Amino acid sequence: xxxxxxxxxxxxxxxxxxxxxxxxxxxxxxxxxxxxxxxxxxxxxxxxxxxxxxxxxxxxxxxxxxxxxxxxxxxxxxxxxxxxxxxxxxxxxxxxxxxxxxxxxxxxxxxxxxxxxxxxxxxxxxxxxxxxxxxxxxxxxxxxxxxxxxxxxxxxxxxxxxxxxxxxxxxxxxxxxxxxxxxxxxxxxxxxxxxxxxxxxxxxxxxxxxxxxxxxxxxxxxxxxxxxxxxxxxxxxxxxxxxxxxxxxxxxxxxxxxxxxxxxxxxxxxxxxxxxxxxxxxxxxxxxxxxxxxxxxxxxxxxxxxxxxxxxxxxxxxxxxxxxxxxxxxxxxxxxxxxxxxxxxxxxxxxxxxxxxxxxxxxxxxxxxxxxxxxxxxxxxxxxxxxxxxxxxxxxxxxxxxxxxxxxxxxxxxxxxxxxxxxx
Length: 424
What we know:
By secondary structure, this protein is mainly β. It has helices spanning about 90-95, 145-150, 160-165, 285-295, 305-310, 365, 390-395; strands spanning about 1-5, 20-25, 40, 50-55, 55, 60-65, 70-75, 85, 100-105, 115-125, 130-140, 155-160, 170, 175-180, 195, 200, 205-210, 215-225, 230-235, 245-255, 260-270, 275-285, 300-305, 310-315, 320-325, 340-345, 350-360, 375-380, 400-410, 410-420.
């Protein structure tokens, strides 16, 4: 059973965002208590469609979820998650959850594993009157992920298969609406590409074609709404094509067990059904740092939100189809951070910017910006007037763009200037 959540470095946050989360649970969870009549979400009587507005940060979909009819929290919607996750134990303590066992979790990085608590008998509620009874949740004993800091908004958990298995799920990226349909009597969207999916360990896979250096290979990619990146490829499991010749060595992100080193490059093209994209950014983790997780997940690659948000997509697990229709972002270029500095939101209200790492040869470093600097504004933007995604977008907006950064270091205010520089 695997649980993924990636916030990709190449698209928004240059370090934390490539792989915030990938978990492998090394123990079986638990079954519904004997005699329980209902388990999981139930499609309400006479329901045809329920629409839920969502927030979007770093290409991730964030929806409201209420636990035990009392505590409303924000969860990332992630096709890679089988069992829901609560990332901060304080909320489990408030709810006085019933833990049934402690389990070991491994993920990419340095350490071998971390511990989590499995809780049962939870009631989940979604907007529109959708209720899930006697459900399970994993509670991380420590907030290893720091999702709120890397996203710039409060995020408390991750949910996936519990929703995708019960409903037909349409993600309208254009309007930021999540539509949940009753599978009975559902009619497929018009003028959308109909693509077969394979469900492996509760996760959706589609076949796509990669083209690199005039070589082409068909690969099964997991469709991962919990990943911010455009594409990730485990090249050790690819037979025909190689890593792009032009690439940069970088810290792709951070998992629960440590940082994830790897390469960032561009594939010549990616073809999904009748859709084809050129110069797609691809993340390639080093084999030693990530290989065991890839193998356990039995996958060669993933497509994440930076590619998916160019469509409006519908998941039909019941009939095993994915519907894709071009969205307003379809023709946008694939870009990545060009400043070389990684900034996170900090403080009780997540309204302070802080440099958490910096590439020593980057434009920001050459301009004199250092790790642990407090950032007051970037071209006049701060977290009081904009969200963190807006600032990430600015730092990947255009090669040569002039950037003005106001910082504070040890009580001293400074102004720094540099120009964005595209590396690949």
